[in-house]
Here is the input.
Amino acid sequence: MNRLLITIITLIIFTSSFGQKINSFADSVRIKYKIPELAYAVVSSDSILEMQSLGFQRVNSKYRATINDRFRIGSCTKTITSYITELLVKQGKLKWDTKFFDLYPELKAQSNKAYYNLTLQDFLTFRAKLIQWSYDDDAPTKKKIKGNNQQQRYKFVAWILRQKPTTETKTVYWANPSYVAVGLMLEKATGKKYETLVEELGKELGIKFDFGQPNLKDINQPWGHDENLEPEKPALNFKLNWLSSAGNINISLPDYSKFIQLQLQGFLGNSKYFTKEEFEYFHFGLPEFSFGWKSIVDRTNNLKYSYHEGNPGTFLTKTFICKDIDKAFILFANIQSDEAEKGMNIVLKELKKQYGK
Here is the structure.
């Protein structure tokens, strides 16, 4: 069976199964705001209410979107890292007050004293005053961070901890290196690579997680695009490895929807891992940012959402969960631009209008 026929059959099945309340509207927004591929879903704790994938995997190409296309979700990776951490704490392999230097004492002497008492919870909830760092930062250079993937991440965090803390005074410090430190702590506590922990979670949940650009392993997966609509060619990026636990997972919309449904089930007390109260705390227990989740109140209807967004340079992800109506809204795009951001927000607003009750 050729690729085109498989794509057509898949689209027919998903369109008929999951509805298309705003299908035409969303596609018109996609075109207007120059989004090559737009995928979105509305889920409840036990149902997929709407799921669509529109457009093209690559700009100016014949490769049409499919429902199983994979997207790099950027910082939404943190929602998965947090979940793994919560499981390990529940299993007694770590504690929330475990200090980083209790696990890595050899790094303490060379690190800034301001970081000596930082704990797992500090890093996971962005309470550590680390410097911000992302893919476009020049330092440290690859020459200074050598070795296999794990060794590189270890040396990267060692470099971060030698830097002066941020001088800003606020509640939450949005710093990717915090989640890199979390990844190191998970690796030390389990003796396993972060990627292995993610793979094991996927097997248990029936979800296929992967890492890096989706087109690296399969050029027929979506290509990311920058603000100039330039497609990102398949390439290994060492900085993505450094940020593996902070922003490098790729996943399909159906599979990420499964993961988000776990959150909704938890709010209802239907999780086999955590209590309802634990889910409430993970999502809303701390101001601004809890355990992998930000929170906000929609002033148009006074509904409270936990949410996270990913913007790793050439993809965009938006995930909004409302426990009070047992609904979640997920949007993927294979471009990062201001225009695409506007378009996705328009689609999100319409989805909330249709399903937000």
Observations:
- The longest strand covers residues 48-55.
- The beta strands are 37-43, 48-55, 70-72, 210-211, 249-252, 294-298, 303-310, 316-322, 327-333.
- Residues 338-355 form the longest helix (18 residues).
